[in-house]
Known about the structure:
Blueprint: H1 3-15, H2 31-36, H3 40-70, H4 77-86, H5 90-99, H6 103-113, H7 119-137, H8 141-172, H9 178-232
Helix pairs in contact: 3-8, 3-9, 4-5, 5-6, 6-7, 6-9, 7-9, 8-9
Amino acid sequence: xxxxxxxxxxxxxxxxxxxxxxxxxxxxxxxLDIILTSSTSGLVVMIILFxxxxxxxxxxxxxxxTLTRAGQVDHNFMNSIRASVESGNLQAAKALCQSxxxxxxxxxxxxxxxxxxxxxxxxxSIENVGNLELLKLEKNLSTLASISGIAPMIGLLGTxxxxxxxxQDMANAQVVTxxxxxxxxxxxxxxxxxxxxxxxxxxxxxxLLVTNLDKVIFKMENTAAQFMDLLQEPTx
Length: 236
């Protein structure tokens, strides 16, 4: 076979589709392109997940700084309180408590207000203040935990709905190609990926905040114990 005959046969086979096309493959879509080209239900799911992610990030940042401030108390705080109480200068001790914006200071201040009453009453008053402060510190943590659990479920719902729509479109189509099938599947799975991402962020933030909260609670309990020991010293 001559070269001209070989080339003629090659181009004929390529033109008729017998040989694979040498055209460049289509460029892959970005995540944003996939989201924007999703169905209406897919867009709704992605918008919901986006809102949940914003709420989760806000709670994580706001609670992190709140818990950090709550745990920042001078190491000499109780020593100063002890010195003021032992010298009988309760006003100075109360003024010191009011100058410190922390749960421990407010617990001690309540105890100072109850000095002169039975120790059990003082202890209960301090515990009540501690419980109120704990409620403030736990603000929105339950919301963050809910987001970590709900987000993947919403993403899974978006995937299921997307697959239903995709299979319905294929059932109505005259010709179904692997490209059409894969296109519908990866559009649907994007919702699951987004839901898992939001859940991971919320769960990691929740665990971080709980760890910081435990540290603050330990300081609150330690401060309350030191204050009660201080009140019992004269009677030992």
